[in-house]
Amino acid sequence: MEDIATYVEGLAAAAKAASRPLGFASNEQRVAAVRAMATALRDAEPTILEQNGLDMDAAAKAGTNAGLLDRLKLTHERIEGMASGLEKLAELPDPMGRVLEHRTIDCGLDLQKVSVPLGLVAMVYEARPNVTADAAGICIRTGNACILRGGSMAQRSCVAIAHALADAVEACGFSREAVSIIETTDRAATGALMGLRGIVDVLIPRGGAGLIQRCVKESLVPVIETGTGNCHIYLHKDVDMQKALPIIVNAKTQRVGVCNAAESLLVDDAVADAALPQVVKTLHEHGVFIHGDAMTCAAAAAAGLAEGADYVPATEQDWGREYLALEMSVKVVADEDEAIAHINRYGTGHSEAIVTEDTAAGERFLREVDASSVYVNASTRFTDGGEFGLGAEIGISTQKLHARGPFAAEALTTYKYEIRGCGQTRP
Amino acid sequence: MEDIATYVEGLAAAAKAASRPLGFASNEQRVAAVRAMATALRDAEPTILEQNGLDMDAAAKAGTNAGLLDRLKLTHERIEGMASGLEKLAELPDPMGRVLEHRTIDCGLDLQKVSVPLGLVAMVYEARPNVTADAAGICIRTGNACILRGGSMAQRSCVAIAHALADAVEACGFSREAVSIIETTDRAATGALMGLRGIVDVLIPRGGAGLIQRCVKESLVPVIETGTGNCHIYLHKDVDMQKALPIIVNAKTQRVGVCNAAESLLVDDAVADAALPQVVKTLHEHGVFIHGDAMTCAAAAAAGLAEGADYVPATEQDWGREYLALEMSVKVVADEDEAIAHINRYGTGHSEAIVTEDTAAGERFLREVDASSVYVNASTRFTDGGEFGLGAEIGISTQKLHARGPFAAEALTTYKYEIRGCGQTRP
Q1: Facing residues of B77 across strands?
Q2: Are residues B135 and B270 in the same domain?
Q3: In a designed cystine with A220, which of A197, A283, A326, B242 is the match (CB 3.0 to 4.6 A)?
């Protein structure tokens, strides 16, 4: 293979060229392409399963753990799931071509601000082949071309899926490069992709903290940062424990490996004596290992939990940790001031919740906590594009520019100003 | 002075802390602060002029050119201009606290998407002291704290202005660190600022291409890229030269050092024989030096212009150049296809214009040219926050994420989701 950087740049340039006609295609044309992609995926099932089998064999030989193997594995049902996901995209309202503003400005110029696609979207992800179809689908639906970079372990599966989708796009009259995938597992390709500012319009990493941090640090292409969630639940002094305990259990244990799971519990000092025994007991019953401050550890010991096996004293580091496991840090705070300051210091701006019967305290928390999604009396697990009614979620942004919190098709738009005149010059 | 990185981080951390109460201050409180800033600036005029005099002396001694000295110089009128600019900000509608969406989602949760300030805004600029007041004013108006980094040549002037503004902010009950300025001319301070991802929410460079490129390349903090404009005017085959010539003259010569000035002229082959003689004559009469392709050079020679003195053959490099001077590249293109492809290849996504009597050609140009502001039959010089009716412009973004084209107060907002429940957990 030729030099990796040259290869990636050539691929991206072709994808960018392919993005142009897509960008002004009609809604009907884009919907037809997404539907054709669904059909193509179903038709390509034998090839995709065969290539996935090769990926699975290689991964198993390399000693990959069961969790990763499960994410990698494709079945008839999972391919059908991808295809029906594409069909759902077809039904989304079109986010493009909306007139966001329209007015006559100085000198009689007619000015319209119109939503348009970004152009070329790069998605970098890990060994989840289904992301290939999700990512390509949302891009084509929104008039963007995409350049995909899947995890090396899933390379054959991702390429097989991308080829089937590119065939469909081509059959609909678009350039097949509108769905491009990097066909080398060389790590240098990701670096090359991150350097293509001006060709690639946005880079969206989907995966673990390591991948995302690499993109944030190295990319010259603008990145939408996703995924890390050190989410807190704060039990205010006017907490109703009948609400609090189910919220804690749900936020911590319903699905532990996700970014909207709670990682840290703050307990108001005024209710600590009453609340902590219930909290440590409930967490323990649900298999949650506790990293507690002094009061929490005392309550855990008093409840008969074993230091080391069931709980340990928390370190400063624990306040910033995203466990993504059945572990939780627990800390007593003096009051709401301290709770908010602690969250704004250690949180990742993802999802934060207060449990309180005091409306004013709840409103203050909503106002003063700096995060994409702030809750009163509800589980942080609701932070999700589907739950929020946004349609097909692309990810959950923890940055503030362009897209914050759960984001979907609209985040793949920008806008342009169209100005119609009859010879005007600036005075 | 202590280590530069520690100094800048401490300054930014204090500014970030100051941003919190500003972020949920009422509109009235923020308006009062901006008005107080205007008054403080007027009151501090003697100090500011004194410090500016020191900057001017040092700059003159260093052999600074007249243009830069003029930008650096403050007078009573210029200080009054800054103060009245601040008073205008007070009258802007409040971009904060708007409910962007409101609905009841699953499980009866009440969801509101609300506009909120970004938090801490860093502005890095050059030797124009007035940017200090503009930048601080728009930030305080929108509930953001700012950390400012002025050009070293204007350091004393910028610090004097910032101190006056900080005094005013403090007198209004906010922390004076809400208007922070880096008080060292050490270049390392800018580098340190660019590393503060997570503390600084956005970095906005205002200045020349060198500064902006440095920020784009080095910053870990998200940047809004501004300022470079390689803007084109395309004379379509159905051009009305009575409109075209004034548009060319206005776009090229009305103000040459600005990013919305035209730098390149494309002439449709079908009208080149008729148009080029008028074009080269008009440009020449307005003192514009021509970088022409073969046909343009031939027309220039035929019109009696002198090669070397009045025109030269264009090189490949010329198509991408932003002259910011009385120079223009001129090229004949085969048709609208080539014009659009050329613009999408060499343009900077700023402002692009077609001159045509053919509505369909105009609409196609609007649709297919990838730029923030696309014009039919008007000068590119209209690309401006004031002209577009946006209020106080911060800059003109040439990126697609978050803010594109002229941007103002709204670009200093993000949003958060506020979710009010009564104990809901995710099923």
Answers
A1: none
A2: no
A3: A197
| Rounded Cα distance, B313 and B290, in Å | 8
| SS3 label, residue B359 | helix
- Does any domain span residue A184? yes
Residue type present at position B175: S
Q: Which residues of chain A have a CB within 8 Å of the CB of B240?
A: 423
> Rounded distance, CA A318 to CA A293, Å?
10
Query: How much is the average pLDDT of B248-254?
Result: 97
Does some domain include residue A395?
A: no
Task: Read off the pLDDT of residues A235-271 as tens digits, 9 standing for 90 and up.
Answer: 999 999 999 999 999 999 999 988 999 999 999 999 9
Is the confidence at residue B31, as pLDDT, over 60? yes
Quote the DSSP letter at residue B305: P
**Closest partner residue to B404 among A377, A415, A420, by Cβ?**
A415
- Rounded to the nearest 10 degrees, how much is the dihedral formed by the CA atoms of A90, A91, A97, A102? -170
Residues of chain A with pLDDT under 50: 1
Q: Is residue B59 part of a domain?
A: yes
- Does the CA dihedral A207-A211-A216-A221 come out positive or negative? negative
pLDDT score for B2: 60
> Which residue among B387, B402, B425 places its CB closest to the CB of A401?
B402
Q: With CB atoms and an 8 Å threshold, state whether B417 touches A109.
A: no
A165 and A83 belong to one structural domain: yes
- In order of A165, A213, B13, the CA distances from A137 in angstroms are 9, 26, 42
Strand partners, A420: A110, B376
Determine the Cα–Cα distance for residues B282 and B233; give it in Å rounded to an integer.
15
Residue A426: which of B376, B382, B404 has the nearest Cβ? B382
Inter-chain residue contact B242 with A216, CB threshold 8 Å: no
Q: What is the pLDDT of residues B113-149, one digit of tens each?
A: 999 999 999 999 988 899 999 999 999 999 999 999 9
How many beta carbons lie within 10 A of that of residue A154, not counting itself?
29
The tokens describing A253, both together, are 């244990």
| Interface contact flag, B254 A426, Cβ < 8 Å | yes
Same structural domain, B84 and B130: yes
Domain total in chain A: 2
The secondary element (H helix, E strand) that includes residue A20 is helix A4-23
pLDDT for the residue B22: 95
Shared domain for A158 and A260, answered yes or no, is: no
- Pair A214, A259 in one domain: no
The stretches of B24-75 forming alpha helices (DSSP H) are: 27-43, 45-61, 66-72
